[in-house]
Amino acid sequence: MFLSAIRTPTVTRSLQAQSTRALSVSAALNEKKQFIVIAHDHTDADAQKRRLSVRETHLAGARALKKDGTLQLGGALLTNHSESGKMVGSIMIFSAESEEDVRKIIEKDQYVQGNVWAKYDIYPFRQAAFP
Prior knowledge:
alpha+beta, 4 helices, disordered N terminus, 4-stranded antiparallel sheet, 49% helix, single chain, Alpha-Beta Plaits
């Protein structure tokens, strides 16, 4: 009797932990997936001019995607951090149901439509959970 009284709380805590892990895994399966997109600009003489000509439209689209939770973060790839550094591409993290959904978003982007990005790659990604 004495031993079973001691073991019961440990077993209960263990079952609670297993139940919590199962709920976490179940919730994670229902969440959207994360994807990193790395896009590289064309390198011809007019590439920067094209980028700047559609930049505001590109950023307006990015703000809308950020607002609805699809775009988690984004920014320009630079040649360096000095004043002479140039934008040479973009990096973005998306939250979406599938890679195809991300591809559709990218294909509608002004940097694709305006011939700024020469190529882009989409990578599955999972953000680490830090305490």
